[in-house]
Specification:
mainly alpha; 0% strand
Length: 85
């Protein structure tokens, strides 16, 4: 994902201000998108990743191992995205 240039950033801010002025409820809903529920899913993925990785190594099953890696990656990306924003 590339960063927005100055003109695109100004246009996005103008759209946000127009939405806030026209429909404050929609602006609040969009501002809270991806809040508690998504953070909870990232946490569950982190908790599930450990046992899946361990079971995948012990049993020698590549599907369990890969699933654990995917869950762990998703949990870490969610954790780092929350710190950035």
């Amino acid at each position: 994902m590339s960063a927005l240039n100055r003109q695109e950033h100004r246009a996005l801010r103008a759209i946000e201000k127009n939405v806030e002025a026209d429909d404050p409820e929609l602006a609040e809903l969009l501002g809270s998108f991806g809040g508690v529920a998504v953070r909870r899913l990232h946490r569950y993925a982190g908790w599930a990743a450990g046992p899946l990785l361990l079971l995948g190594v012990v049993v020698g099953d590549a599907v369990l191992l890969l699933t654990g890696v995917v869950f762990a990656t998703w949990a870490v990306l969610g954790w780092t995205a929350r710190d950035v924003s």
